[in-house]
Amino acid sequence: MAAPLRIQSDWAQALRKDEGEAWLSCHPPGKPTLYGSLTCQGIGLDGIPEVTASEGFIVNEINKKSIHISCPEENASSKFLAPYTTFSRIHSKSITCLDISSGGGLGVSSSADGSMKIWQASNGELRRVLEGHVSDVNCCRFFPSGLVVLSGGMDAQLKIWSAEDASCVVTFKGHKGGILDTAIVDRGRNVVSGSRDGTARLWDCGRSACLGVIADCGSSINGVAVGAADNSINLGSPEQMPSEREVGTESKMLLLAREDKKLQCLGLQSRQPVFLFVGSDAFNCCTFLSGFLLLAGTQDGNIYQLDVRSPRVPVQVIHRSGAPVLSLLSFRDGFIASQGDGSCFIVQQDLDYLMELTGADCDPVYKVPETGP
Fold first, then answer.
1. 235 and 251 in contact (C-beta within 8 Å)?
2. Alpha-carbon gap, residue 100 to 237, rounded angstroms
């Protein structure tokens, strides 16, 4: 991967005024960092600033919300996107998790301030406060309907909420440690949770019951993902007849990002192992790209792309910085990743440059959700 480019987090505001400046840097691995700057030479009639770059950097293109910069010496090229809106009043402390409903209308987020809230995605207007977890909420997500929310907390409880009236309709108990991540199976009759107690559990939402411990790995499970398996992958057969309450688990893979540097994949219905991969550090997050390709991110900044059909050697390992990889999301023909140093970037196969989402100033970006259509 080309050397990462960095830009001042509020570059869009800084370059809006005459002679305004923003810093720029290129970080080639194993070589000294190259520093530069951007300067606004004036604002055009269309409201777009005319910007020049210092020696070693080139401005390829600019508009009101994006700027495309290259560093030819290092063959590095990034298009930086400024946020088109920012909601700063929803929470008072860092946001640990968020999700957007399938229709794109609502957002749900949890924060280090102990709160979990539902808000209007268009304007950030608060709609509901979801109260009931004891201590911090670690993860929250909408069900596919967009009307119901699933959350997991440090209180070892998994809860289902109505987004319409903020009532808690189901509470799952069984974990012995905080819940760190969840996944929804198909339309949501079943859900999966991963916990600090080292177990991944499958739950029946209709009867608020645990359908089984899918894995007990003796190490904290930081991230979970469920994906449909390609026909060529042998998921094994269940040792016991699955409960009729299991819906949509057949031909699904479960991926577990573990604290003990292991990435574990197993058949969701069969509970049989598919592979166990050892990485460079604790795995924080994971996601499926297809029926056989997956991504997983580590605490020391590595993003592993693996093929389930031959998982011993990674397809590729992407390393942009030593900051922890905190979130991974499949996006078009590529993915979006966020890290603990505030970087958030999009990799797409058909682009010869990276897209960088800017605005976070060195604060960790804990979660990147998909928005609606």
1. yes
2. 35
Single out the residue of 109, 167, 190 nearest to residue 142, CA to CA: 109
- Domain membership of residue 124 as a residue range: 95-357
- Examine the domain organization and report whether 247 and 193 are in the same domain: yes
CA dihedral 264, 356, 289, 194 (to 10 degrees): 40
Whether 83 and 365 have beta carbons less than 8 Å apart is answered as: no
- What whole-number distance in Å separates Cα of residue 195 and Cα of residue 175? 7
Strand partners, 39: 21, 52
112 within some domain: yes
Residue 372 has a pLDDT of 58
Residues 178, 229, single domain; the answer is yes
How far the first Cα of the chain sits from its last, in Å, is 30
Residue-wise pLDDT for 296-316, tens only, equals: 999 999 999 999 999 999 999
In the predicted model, what is the mean pLDDT of residues 343-354?
Answer: 92
What is the model's pTM? 0.95
pLDDT band at 281 (very low <50, low <70, confident <90, very high): very high
Residue 152, token pair as written in the block: 């997991």
Query: In a 10 Å sphere around its CB, with 0-12 CB exposed, 13-18 middle and 19+ buried, how is residue 350 labelled?
Result: exposed
Distance CA 368, CA 233 (A): 29
Q: How far apart are CA 63 and CA 364, in angstroms?
A: 27
